[in-house]
Design a protein that fits this description.
By secondary structure, the protein is mainly α. It has 20 helices and no strands. It folds into two domains: about 210 residues, no CATH class; about 150 residues, no CATH class.
Length: about 400
Amino acid sequence: MFREKLLLIVRFAVLILAVFNSLRWVIPSIQGRYQPLDFNTYFLAAKTFDEGLNFYSESDRVINLNNSDSTTWINIRHVSINETPVYAPQFTLLFELFVKLGYGPSKSLYFFLTISGLLLSVFWASKLSGGLDFKWALAGVLAFRGTWYALDNGQPLLLCLPVILAALYYSKNPRYALFSGIMLGIFAFKFTLIFAPLAYWFLQKNYKGIIACVTVSLLLNSLALAINPTDTSILLQTWSYNMSSIWNFIHQEHFLNSLNIINCSASVILAYYGLVPVQILKIIFSLLFIVVFVLVFILAYKRQDKSASVLLGLTLISQCFAQHLIYDLLVMVVYAIVLYKKDYELKWWMFSNLIILILPLGKLSDITGIQETPFLVPIVLLINLFIWMYCYLSNKNSAIKKPS
C-alpha cells in the first residue's frame, strides 16, 4: 500500500514538473528567443570547413566569422571557450548540409529536428522497455532539467540519441545487424556515447553491427580529414588542443564557470577545492574510466549477461569518469526507461536520482547562497555507481540473475 502511494506521489510530481518545464521553455522559444549555442558552434565549424580552413582552430573560425557577408546569422563577432568544437571530424559532413541551406532556415529546421529527436528517443526507449507507457516515459524525460539544457543549446545529442536507441532496437533482429551498425556509425561523432552500446553489442554477439559502425565512422572521419586542405596532423593536433583546453577550463581551482557547474564528473570537485593537481587528475580519471569500464565488461562477458542493466551501468561509468555535462544524463534517463519492468521495485537510494534530475539546483544555489550546490550531481552519480558496482560484483542485481 505504501509503495503504491509513493509511486502515485512520484508520478504526480513528475507530471507537474514536465508541464511546468514545457511551458517555461515553449513560450520564450515561440517569442523568438531561441539561441542554440551548440548548433551555432558546429554550424560555424562546418562553415569554416566549407571554406577550406581548419575547423578546429579558433583563429580560423574567427576569420570565417568576421569575413561573413552578413551579421544576421550569428550575433557575435568572436568565439568563446563554450563554443569550442570537440566532436570527431565527421560532424562536419552532417553540419555541411545545414551550411548549404543557410543559417536562418537551418536554425528553424534544427529546432524542429531536436524536438523530433527528443520525441523519437522516448518512442524508441518505450519500445525497448518492459512495458512503460509512452506518455509516462515522455513525462519523465520532460521533468528532467537536463532535457531543457539540451533543447536550449541545440545539443547534437538530440540528433544522436534517437539513432542510438533505434540501432539498439533493430539490432535485436539479426537481419538488421548491419543496418543498425551503419546507423550508429553515421552518428558516431559524439563518440563517448557509443562506447557503452558497442560493448553491449559485443555481449550480444552483434559483431556485424560493431564492424559496420566502426568502419562507417572511420570512413566518414577519413573523408572529412581528406577533403579539408589543412594538413591532417595539424587538424588532429588542434582537435587534441581543444579537448585539453576544455578540460583545463572545467577544472579550475576555486572558480565556478559555465561548464564545471553542469559537469557530471567528480573530478571537477577535486579540482575546484585544489585537492589534486589538474594534470594528475586527468590521468587518474582516464585510468579509472578504462579500468572500471573494462572490469564490468569482462565480468558481464564471463557471466554472459546481456541485460540492459549492463548498458546502464557502463553508461554510468562513462558519465562519472569521462567528461559529460548535465544534458548528457538524458542518455541515462532513457536507458533507465529501457530497463523499466512493470514489477520494478523502487530502491531507497533511487530517490537521490530524482532530486538531482528534476530539482533546479541553480535556483537552489541562488536561494541558499551556496554556489557549490550543483556539485550534488557528480556526488550522487558517484554514489550511484558505487551502489551499482556493489550490487553487480556481489551478484545482487536481479537483472544479472535473470539476464534478458
